Amino acid sequence: MSAPTYANKNATCVSMTSTSGDYKTGNGPTGTYRTKGGPTYAPNDWQNSNSIMSTTAVRQQGGSLEIRQAARKLRNETDNKTNWGQKDNTTRLYDRMIDVTAWKDKLEQTIADTNTEISALTNHKERCETALANMNTPYEVVHDNLATRAIRVAIDLVDDEVHQELNKEVEVIDGIKQKLKQKVDEAFRQLCSLQDAYNAMCDDLADKMHSLDVDQACHGLTNQSANIGFHKNATRIKEGIVQADVWDSHSNYNTQRAMAEMRASTSLREAINNMIEQTSNDLEAQRLRTEYAFRKRIHEVQMAKDELEWQQRNTKRELDVLSDDIRGLKQAISDKDKPLEVAETRSENRTYRPNVELCRDQPHDGIIAERNDLLNTVSTLIDQHNIAEDAHTQLRQTLNRLDEDWSIKSNSLELEERCMTKRQKLTLVSHNV
């Protein structure tokens, strides 16, 4: 706004000067009064100046009123905008804290569930490891049974049903150990996955807690707070900043990943339970089959041993009877010596009959027939004695074989019973832990 004009520039200015160049002052008739060094204005100029001053003042007062009203309006508007802007952002901070708190609560719950699942899977892994360690006893017992039965000798070293069942038991135990080892490895890998998900959620939760602390501090700031101030480049975009949907998807990914790992862990625990129960049943079923074969074999060996003992008794009794008969034959042969001597003496003495008396009369023929009969009888007795001796020898050999086979059966029976005693340890092993 330009400065107001206080006088008409076309106004005539009357200048009164002294001849001597000095201003006159005083009341005398020789001079007039005027302002020292300034122009002299006409009354109209003075009136105009007053009018202009009044008009200008009124106009500027009106402009000032408009300015004051505009300023007050702007101040009210900016105050309201500032207050509402601060209030809106305070509300946004509160809403943000609600969102972060919701994720924090979900993360805490998921972390707790994950920790529970880690404990449960660790327990099942330990069960698998315990069951795997418990398999050492059946493994040792079965191999001890095989080694013990390998001591059997001669005909008893047979590939019988017990041997076949023991080999099947070895296959079952090896299969169970392999399955348990596989589940232990799977549980270890699953625990690593759960731990990774757990650690990611813990890191996310720690960030959420820190973010809540920051937002709570910001939410509590007011115009009267002591710790507020101007900051250089406060609205800069910091490196690594992400969009809100990325933030939301990050926590969602962490929780979804953890829940997926927990589902996989739950399935694995169920598989471990089923596998331990199934393998325990398989091992027990095979144990019962093997021990049934053992009992059956022990019964067969015992029956064979009893039969051998029966045959031993009969053979010994027959040997005794045959020995008596052999002695009787020997005595019968010996008993024929005197009658033979009598017959031959008679025959010899009658050869000394004189002349015609030396004839083949009935006594002569009878004595010769008697002698021949005695010789034939002795020969028959000798033949029978030899046959009896051969039979006695064969019976003795048979008895020796019976004794040897009895020793073999006794050894086998002792070995089978030793195996059964060793297998009692299997009933003390808890596989289904």
Strand and helix layout:
Layout: H1 43-134, H2 136-149, H3 161-220, H4 244-335, H5 337-350, H6 362-422
Helix pairs in contact: 1-3, 1-4, 2-3, 2-6, 3-4, 4-6, 5-6
Describe the structure.
The protein has 433 residues and is mainly α. The protein has helices spanning 43-134, 136-149, 161-220, 244-335, 337-350, 362-422. The radius of gyration is 68 Å and the shape is rod-shaped. The two termini are 101 Å apart.
Q: Structural class, from helix and strand content?
A: mainly alpha
The general outline is rod-shaped
- What does the main sheet amount to? none
Global mean pLDDT: 84
Tell me the Rg in angstroms: 68 Å
Low-confidence parts, pLDDT < 50 over ≥5 residues? 1-31
Provide keyphrases for this structure.
rod-shaped, 0% strand, mainly alpha
In a few lines, what is going on in this structure?
It is built from 6 helices and no strands. It is mostly helical.
